[in-house]
Amino acid sequence: MGDPRRRIIRTPSHQASSPHRARSFVSVTEIPMRLGGFPRMLAILSALVLCNLCPSSGAGTPHASPATDEAEVGYQRDVQPIFNRRCIACHGCLGSPCNVKLDSYRGAERGAFGMNPYANHFGPYPRTDMDAAKTLEQWREIGFFSVLSEEGSGHASRRETSAVASEDLLDGSLMYRFLEAGSAYNRPGFSRDALVPVYAKRFAYGCPATPYAAAAQLAANPAMGMPFGLPAIAAGDFNVLKRWIAAGAPGPTDEELRAAAELARPEEVAHWEAFFNDPDPRHQLVSRYIFDHFYLATIVLEESPGERFRLVRSTTPPGEPVDIIGTGLPYEDPYAYAGVNRFWYRLSKLTQAPMQKNLFLWRLEHSDADHLEQLFFGPDGPGAHWSASAPLDPPWGIGNPFSIFRAIPAEARYRFLLENAEAVASGIIYGPVCNGQTATYAVKDHFWVFFVRPEDDVSVQNPALGLATWNTMMDRSVFADAAYVDAYDKALAKLRPRGWSVDAIWDGDGNNPNAWLTVMRHNTNVSVVLGRQGGTPRTLWLMTYSGFERMYYDTVASFEYWGGDLSKLQTLLFFNFLRQEFQDNFLTLLPAADREPIRKTWTQGVGRLGLLLVPFDAGESPQPDAAVNPEEALNGLIKAVEGQFSGKIAGPPDRLNPDIKPAVDLAAPISTFADWERAVSTLTVTQGQPFTRFLPSVIVLRLDDANASRVYSFVVNRVYKSQYTLIFQDGQALPDLYSLSVYPTIINGFPNLFVHLDMAQAAPFLDALRKVGSAADWEQFKARYGILRNSARLWPFYDWINDWNFQHRQSEAGYLDLSYYDVPE
User: Fold this and answer.
1) Of all residues in the chain, what percent are helix, strand and coil, respectively (each to 5)?
2) Mean pLDDT, residues 598-611
3) 298-301 vs 361-364, strand pairing mode
4) Among 778, 805, 796, 815, which residue's Cα sits nearest to residue 230?
5) In the chain, which end has fewer C-beta atoms inside a 10 angstrom radius, N or C?
6) Are 412 and 375 a contacting pair, CB within 8 Å?
């Protein structure tokens, strides 16, 4: 909170001095020539086949000096930094190959599990998030098996081992065998032929559960070494990991763990824990509401820079070590789950490395507690009039915020979401729903999001909307959704008989940039950013309080990533209804005659059937002599909406994605960054350019000029006839409508290609790019300018870009994921 522009951030924070900043799994595959002492660990390494580890130094912090051959290997000093810079690119969060998570010793120790929750499956799978179990024994009961060594996990000090024992530990370590294989076969320039078939079945990949099965797999395909499809890790790093595994894979010492958990500003943590644990029943209900919406967020306390936290529920009170109550969903009963009669909200310090793809920030200043107090309880604010009849201690286990939190004034709830809209939307965009196969197809788009003012939002002024039951609000069926939309429209007709106009859009009260969001969602890449970015998009949303809550609970609070495909299909369908509702809300700002033509332009093909399922006020038919130009009307509306916002909300003019293009000869030399940006802008947000259909979703480009370097993200905005198509969606693509947006920073967490240019190459690069007109042209262009995944240049560039990210974006920065780098998305 505090400065609204800083209140919500879309990516993970980074701790420049923390030894935990990033932890990664080092897996490299090799043909095991020895089978002795082979534990099930092999199973996982096989899955690690999809991981990316490699040589080189780490990113974000000064690289630790590796242990010498004589020195004892320390986990925090020597091992985790290698994991951070070479392994968590694939093994950093949910859905990693074989569920191996290497951002911490706890993750490395728990090992692997052969059932990936993101694979297609009918029934539910076990949860694999790190809150699903507390002890190693519990992970083994779930089915996780070691990837370190049968004899080698769980020891914080070096064990006394003989040469024979060390050899047995290496023989029995899946991690070592896969790393050894990678070191043998993944030399720069290696063949990339093995990549495509494996990536095509990424989520269905089987993890061999026995050493014999793994040995057979490696014997059949030696190229499956780790890092899979990437250059081998450096010899020095390999030696460190080998000696660590041979020593029994010891973890951090007790002293290291205590140092990592130590708080820089304990009084700030105590301040916020006191706020969340106020015993007053109204305060407890508000804390419960906040927890539902921010349990996935990374919290940054402005008065405690360099530290990151998450809001959790604990069996222990403030002042004692946190004991997380790890329910799968935020509204599940913590008392029943933990078997306790009391719990506390705690700020649990995060020490593992942040991943760019799934972390987003909720920034809090010390004074924000006073603001929240005024917002929810102030006598003159939105929270002044609590319901006297609604319960202050509603039942648990019900994912319906309209019913559970109805005692809290609806305007207070909505204003809380508005003031933190980027963070709430980031939970939707970066949360587990965006990793899960079926559910992700709900949107592939680039769009702007606006919000209805509380005073013009019927779901704030009349929360029940005249419906007979609160259940209709969260019923995901076609008929219930239609009933909700119909009820909202009827209630709106009473509140504003002439409907909404542009002045019904929330303007951020003149200073809150959360009023205008830009969202990008293309294949694996997602981003939410503040303000007007990326150029004018093809579609726009206007969200209401009830719509915002419905979408959040559908895709975040109630989303079971471990659930079967049927539940994910329900999430997809309901999301599409909501998307259609928000687009329709925006279209009602158009003259009546222009609404339906634009609606049918935005949704074509099989999606037209979906339009019939969502009630829409198309207005009166135009008069026969009316001159109707829907596109001109839409452009005029967008300009009118932009006029509603101050520069602080909209952001500065987008020099890289302007509507009016400068006159630039792309064949002419480029000598400055300003010249470069003018030249690039001639290629952006312009439909019909052939090269856009061949580009991957995101290219991250470094441009050097003397001693200065800048970073740009090239993002392709793809267009489809419909967002309703689950299968064969790419067959519904409209490539003639694709466009390119360019951003002067890192956007999204899954780069598909790196490019490194000096200024002398800038003009030839752009000239060659615009001339790409076929798949063959693209392959030649990529080979000339791109850094391919089998290139010796890959790891030096990866280290540089991660360092740049942490240095320039600081708490917004996380490690980039290479799962979809230089392979089909």
Assistant:
1) 40, 10, 50
2) 79
3) parallel
4) 796
5) C
6) yes
DSSP per position, 589-630: TS-HHHHHHHHHHHS-TTHHHHHTTS-----SPPPTT----H
Question: In a 3-state reduction of DSSP, which class is residue 314?
Answer: strand
Question: Is the C-alpha dihedral spanning 762, 764, 766, 768 positive or negative?
Answer: negative
Adjacent-strand bridge partners of 297? none
Contact 579, 543 (CB under 8 A): no
Task: Give the largest Cα separation in the chain, rounded.
Answer: 94
pLDDT at 387 over 70: yes
What average pLDDT does the segment 544-571 reach?
92
Tokens of 495: 């509140």
Q: What are the backbone angles phi and psi of residue 676, rounded to the nearest 5°?
A: -60, -50
Tokens of 696: 């991957």
Paired sense of beta strands 525-530 and 517-522, if any: antiparallel
Residue identified by tokens 């990536």 is: 199
For tokens 């105590």, the residue is 270
b/e for 275-311, b at 16 or more Cβ within 10 A?
bbbbeeeebbbbbbbbbbbbbbbbbbbbebeebbbbb
Alpha helices in 420-507 (DSSP H): 421-430, 437-440, 458-461, 471-474, 478-495
Rounded-to-integer distance, Cα 818 and Cα 333, Å: 37
pLDDT of residue 566: 84
What 565-571 contacts at long range (C-beta under 8 Å, 24+ apart), as own/partner pairs, is 565/120, 565/121, 565/122, 565/437, 565/438, 566/122, 568/436, 568/437, 568/438, 568/439, 569/438, 569/439, 569/726, 570/476, 571/433, 571/438, 571/439, 571/442, 571/476
- In whole angstroms, give the CA distance from residue 97 to residue 91: 7
- What residue type is assigned to position 478 of the chain? V
* CA 237/CA 65 separation, integer angstroms: 11
Q: At what angle do helices 281-294 and 410-419 cross, to 10 degrees?
A: 40
Give CA 787 to chain center in angstroms: 24
Return the amino acid letter for 410. Answer: A
227, 49 Cβ separation under 8 angstroms: no
- CA–CA separation, 350 and 299 (whole Å): 9
Rounded CA separation 170/38 (Å): 9
CA dist., res. 176 & res. 146, Å (int): 12
Distances (CA, A) of 226 to 27, 184, 340, 480: 5, 10, 44, 50
pLDDT digits (tens, 9 = 90+) for 721-759: 876 655 445 558 889 999 999 999 999 899 999 999 999
Contacts of 124 (CB under 8 A, 6+ apart): 560, 562, 563, 564
Chain mean position to CA 584: 27
Residue length of the chain? 825
Is residue 739 within 8 A of residue 684, CB to CB? The reply is: yes
* DSSP alpha helix (H) spans, 172-210: 174-185, 195-200
CA 104 to chain centre: 19
Q: How far is CA 555 from the centre of its chain?
A: 13
Q: What residues pair up with 312 in beta bridges, in sequence order? A: 346
Helix (H) or strand (E) holding 272: helix 266-276
Residue 42: helix, strand or coil by DSSP? helix
Q: What is the pLDDT of residues 99-156, one digit of tens each?
A: 999 999 999 999 999 887 777 778 889 999 999 999 999 999 999 999 998 644 444 4
Per-residue DSSP letter, 79: I
Q: Give the separation between CA 410 and CA 473, rounded to whole angstroms.
A: 14
Rounded to a whole number of angstroms, the distance between the first and last alpha carbons of the chain is 36
- The dihedral built from the CA positions of residue 480, 485, 490 and 492, taken in this order, carries a sign that is positive
Query: Tokens 């109204």 label which residue?
Result: 282
